[in-house]
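Handover notes (outgoing to incoming on-call)

Open items:
1. Maleate isomerase: sequence verified, structure written out, both below. Nothing else pending on this one.
2. Nothing else urgent.
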Amino acid sequence: MTATKTCLGVLTPSSNTALEPLTSALAASAGRCSAHFSRFTVTEISLAQAALNQFDDSRILAAAELLADAKVDVIGWSGTAAGWRGFDCDRQLCERIEQRTGIKATTAILALNELMQKLSVKKLAIVSPYTADVQRCIVNNYRAAGVETTAHRHLNISVNHRFALVEPEQLLGLIEEVIEEGAPDAVVTYCTNLHAAQLADQVERRWNVPLLDTVSTTVWGMLRTAGRNPADIKGWGRLFEVA
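Maleate isomerase structure tokens:
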């Protein structure tokens, strides 16, 4: 445990109700760590231009500047849009956040991809609430990066607020399906508005496959970026044992 408190600054989709309580619980588990949030408008997940425009960097940077007022130690974008927009979007966003605020930044997807490299994940299973075309983009982007999606499920929802209404029991059933079908190296719950992070220990005990939930990957990435050991977090999955 560190002697000083770590303040995590989290960029949050405006209609999201899942990631804040989960992130706060994860931060509390780390000890001497707190999470602080700034929102920008995200209400729809689709490939329509209006939906894609929600992730314009100018809107996200304005929210990041508000977090900078709180003197947070790191800024993390807890969202998965780079999965369908392209991973370079998040790399550019982090550079711009750091230039604008002077604070180091990371994202759910950059952290997820780093974790998969460290865990040598070549076969991935994906569970998301998204529509088929969005899911297809995610699968294609991972294929281009050398990771094959061996099984996936999606719920064909586009209204962001509705993602949080999906019951954890339903997610657990989908996780079981993709693990048994695809024999993956890891399974990812690919959305930060799902109540899935708390399922990691249960999934890993039952199927011996790591669950890389994207709320959790954001926290993992922020802790490492802030110079903290993610292993301070216990009971939320194997990913926090990865240095």
